[in-house]
Write a structure and sequence with these properties.
The complex is a heterodimer of chains A (about 600) and B (about 200). In chain A, helix 17 packs across helix 24. Chain A is globular. In chain A, helix 18 links the parallel strand 15 and strand 16. Chain A folds into three domains: about 180 residues, 3-Layer(aba) Sandwich (Rossmann fold), CATH 3.40.50; about 160 residues, 3-Layer(aba) Sandwich (Rossmann fold); about 220 residues, Thiamin diphosphate (ThDP)-binding fold, Pyr/PP domains (Rossmann fold), CATH 3.40.50.970. Chain A has about 600 residues and is an alpha/beta fold. In chain A, strands 3-2-4-5-7-6 form a six-stranded parallel β-sheet, sandwiched between helices. In chain A, strands 11-10-9-12-13-14 form a six-stranded parallel β-sheet, with helices on both faces. A six-stranded parallel β-sheet of chain A has the order 16-15-17-18-20-19, with helices on both faces. Chain B has about 200 residues and is α+β, with helices and mostly antiparallel strands. The chains are: A alpha/beta (about 600), B alpha+beta (about 200). Chains A and B meet through loops of A and helix 1 and helix 2 of B. Bound molecules: thiamine diphosphate and magnesium ion (MG). The site of thiamine diphosphate has 20 residues of chain A, from helix 18, helix 20 and helix 22.
């Protein structure tokens, strides 16, 4: 990596104003913004930029599809906290980015996408490979720019980085016409500085709001902290932990919150929501106070709103004012950066005895725990839960796991216990199949020293499987676990529960994934029984290069518990054998 | 309910699309939208009127502020303010029946701004109901309306507030009560007299 080393010259551009081409300005600005890696795919309208790359100390990963570039930049950002960068040409290159941009938008991931466009003289004429990418991406970017003059490139790019990483982060696209890339202008990194960052004017943490929050916390008998992605994004892990420990309030996590509070912590309840643990959802329904930290009451965690946590007062600590009272009406809104708000709140908060409530929750675990993985029959069948559990055990929870979307994603969330932030990378808001493989490439590029595992379904893996070549070309050590159930499993599960087992278009023929890996020069093996899991995982971990394991798991297993869409949080479908009926809190 | 937002936005290509796109995404119809230069260099001022639930106001304002090119947003809500609309109405009229229209125009405090052999053009500013009143009367009479061009509403808060002062006061939350003997109100009332 980093083969384009000409550091001195590149850095000289940063300190002395120099006359450069627009293309050189693109790279020089990226260098100035601290970028070391980008993911992209060339084409006519971005060729001048590619031509200038070799002069700059930036490593470029050639992807196999631009969607992969966007997911890689996204995975890079999620793994490192830095801004990810993707590059594509005009027209089809740019439109291929869109799914990846939307994925980043829905999960608030800082990302900058650079696209080439046709020359400014022919903009809007349906010139060859012209597409209105700023128009197309307008609703799925935090902001975007159409740049047609060389002098505008550096200021726009610098502003793009500022926008991407500030406030509630998100993707920004900068579309640069070919003539702007080819023109020349004085580059001066310092004067291209974006105007002062303007925090959202409706941020509002008032004295009396803080006092009300303190009062609610002091008087609560059955409080729960709901921790979301904002904990990681704001770097508020310590503050949330202090709040929980001092007040002895248990913590429930959203999917994207996993890892922000250690799984092994005695106050960690586990994941909430559609496939959350039964006791977590019951506890939320019984709670008298919810302290929502950097989460947005997404429909996947609330169930039907009318019956959501009706007994609870709600405190919402959130950086985006547009999220306040959007889904759930709250009693106290503290609108600001989570870490800053908690820093203000914590000195006012004293110790509390939370033992009675914790005991109640603990007691409620019993009924659910018997349905746990340990009770799945180990009769020669292989369950996905076995695979994930063993993977967690063998890697001692240290790996960065990148999942795709579907049943395996939920099993990962249930059975891999994340201790650290940024150790689970998954597409939550958009639920983008095909995310895992490219996002893992981004994560591994950002954190080469970390063990990276892909956990993907047989369906989603095939959506972006072409990126196997990228892994090989980049010589990345990534381990891939395919949870192969022969179905678009999550959709099959819905068909089983809600469409009378009409398995329309969900059985799936796949290639022999081990042979597919082999064709790419990647080793692999198939696993059919639980007994083989451990040795296969060891083989993968010790293999010098990337390794793929095709886990042939039980075909028609389902993820439990499950709250059917449109049901209340406590109306869960439970694993059969015990009580297949809907269960209400009284059953506990 | 009817919401009125006043926003200062950067005078740049594509900015209006971003504002409009927000409402499109929420599936909210924009009833009227007026945009023009403001007292602040490089910034346009717009007045946007839309129908949405009472709770939607906060979220729309917060979402408008999230747009990079939007500098200031005021949710006028029920605040004391002056709202005006401009209408140009072309009516078929011959020299024989003109005088009747002249009378109407007089009553409505409108103006005739163009006179052609077959038609004339009325210019009128006022509140929406006044403009609609004139249109209704014209429709009910002999006259045939040929064209109507309406600007959409323009709204400005009363008193010395600028949106900046308002923000310092808590962005639209704190409203100054309308004072009965405020001369501005008196002017408003006389100007808004509805024709019988
Ligand atoms: C791009 C995309 N298309 C469709 C869906 C709808 N969808 C959600 S889960 C799922 C099935 C995934 O199947 P597979 O990858 O085999 O994973 P499994 O659920 O079997 O673990 C589908 C089709 C989606 N989330 N993303
Ligand atoms: Mg599958």
């Amino acid at each position: 990596m980093g083969s384009n080393a000409n550091t001195q010259e590149a850095n000289a551009h940063l300190t002395t104003p120099t006359r450069l081409t627009g293309s050189e300005i693109v790279w020089a600005t990226l260098v100035g913004e601290g970028v070391t890696d980008v993911f992209g795919y060339p084409g006519g309208a971005i060729l001048p930029v590619y031509d200038a790359l070799r002069k700059f100390p930036i490593h470029h990963t050639l992807v196999r599809h631009e969607q992969g570039a966007a997911h890689m930049a996204d995975g890079y950002a999620r793994a490192s906290g830095k801004v990810g960068v993707a590059i594509a040409t005009s027209g089809p290159g740019a439109t291929n980015l869109v799914t990846g941009i939307a994925t980043a938008m829905l999960d608030s991931i800082p990302m900058v996408c650079i696209t080439g466009n046709v020359s400014s003289k022919v903009l809007g004429t349906d010139a060859f490979q012209e597409v209105d990418i700023t128009g197309i991406t307008l609703p799925v970017t935090k902001h975007n720019f159409l740049i047609s003059r060389t002098e505008e490139i550096a200021p726009a790019l610098r502003q793009a980085f500022q926008i991407a990483r500030s406030g509630r982060p998100g993707p920004v696209l900068v579309d640069i016409t070919k003539d702007a890339q080819q023109g020349k202008a004085i580059f001066d990194f310092a004067t291209a500085k974006p105007r002062a960052y303007r925090p959202h004017p409706m941020l509002n943490v008032e004295q009396h709001g803080l006092e009300s929050a303190v009062e609610l916390i002091r008087n609560a008998k059955r409080p729960i902290i709901l921790a979301g992605h904002g904990v990681t994004e704001s770097g508020a892990m310590e503050q949330v932990r202090t709040l929980a420990e001092r007040t002895q309030i248990p913590v429930a996590l959203t999917l994207l919150g996993l890892g922000a509070f250690p799984a092994s912590h005695p106050l960690n309840l586990g994941m909430m929501g559609m496939h959350g643990e039964a006791w977590v959802n019951h506890a939320i329904q019984e709670a008298d106070l919810l302290i929502a930290c950097g989460m947005r009451f997404d429909d996947r965690v609330t169930g039907t709103l009318a019956s959501y946590a009706t007994k609870a007062k709600k405190i919402h600590i959130e950086v985006d004012p547009a999220e306040i009272n959007k889904n759930v009406k709250v009693d106290v809104a503290l609108v600001g950066d989570l870490r800053e708000v908690l820093e203000e709140l914590l000195p006012r908060i004293g110790g509390r005895d939370g033992s009675a409530w914790l005991k109640t929750i603990e007691a409620s675990k019993g009924a659910s725990a018997v349905r746990d993985i340990k009770n799945l029959p180990d009769d020669g069948h292989l369950y996905a839960a076995h695979v994930v559990h063993d993977l967690w055990r063998i890697t001692e929870g240290e790996a960065v796991v990148v999942t795709d979307v579907g049943q395996h994603q939920m099993w990962e969330a249930q059975y891999f216990h994340h201790e650290k932030p940024r150790s689970l990378i998954t597409s939550g808001g958009l639920g983008t199949m095909g995310f895992a493989l490219p996002a893992a490439i981004g994560a591994k590029t950002a954190c080469p020293e970390k063990e990276v595992w892909v956990i993907a379904g047989d369906g989603g893996f095939q959506m972006t499987a072409a990126e196997l070549s990228t892994i090989v070309q980049e010589k990345l050590k990534i381990n891939i676990a395919i949870i192969n159930n022969g179905y678009l499993g999550m959709v099959r599960q819905w068909q089983e529960f809600f469409y009378e087992r009409n398995y329309e278009s969900t059985p799936l023929v796949s290639p022999d994934f081990v042979k597919l890996a082999d064709a790419h020069g990647i080793s692999g093996r198939a696993v059919r029984t639980r007994a083989e899991v451990e040795s296969a995982v060891h083989e993968a971990r010790t293999a010098p290069g990337a390794f793929l394991i095709n886990f042939l798991v039980e075909k028609e297993d389902s993820v439990y518990p499950m709250i059917p869409a449109g049901s209340a949080l406590h109306e869960m479908i439970r694993r059969p054998d015990h009580d297949p009926l809907l269960e209400s809190p009284e059953d506990l | 309910m009817l919401h009125t937002f006043v926003a200062y936005v950067e005078d740049l290509p594509g900015v209006l699309t971003r504002v409009a796109s927000l409402f499109r995404r929420l599936n909210i119809n924009i009833n009227s939208l007026t945009v023009g230069r403001s007292e602040r260099p490089g910034l346009s001022r717009l007045t946007l009127v839309c129908e949405a639930s009472a709770e939607a106001g906060h979220r729309i304002q917060a979402s408008l502020f999230k747009l990079e090119n939007v500098v200031d947003v005021d949710d006028i809500a029920q605040a004391p303010s002056v709202t005006r609309e401009l209408a140009l109405i072309k009516v078929a009229a011959t020299p024989q029946n003109r005088s009747q229209i002249f009378e109407l125009v007089e009553v409505f405090r409108a103006r005739i701004v163009d006179l052609a052999p077959e038609s004339l053009m009325i210019e009128m500013t006022g509140v929406e109901s006044k403009i609609e009143g004139l249109i209704q009367v014209l429709n009910e009479g002999e006259e045939r309306i040929l064209e109507i061009c309406r600007s959409g509403k323009m709204t400005m808060r009363r008193g010395h507030h600028t949106s900046r002062v308002l923000r310092a006061m808590g962005a639209g939350a704190a409203e100054r009560p309308v004072s009965e003997d405020d001369p501005a109100n008196a002017v408003e009332e006389s100007a808004d007299i509805e024709p019988a």
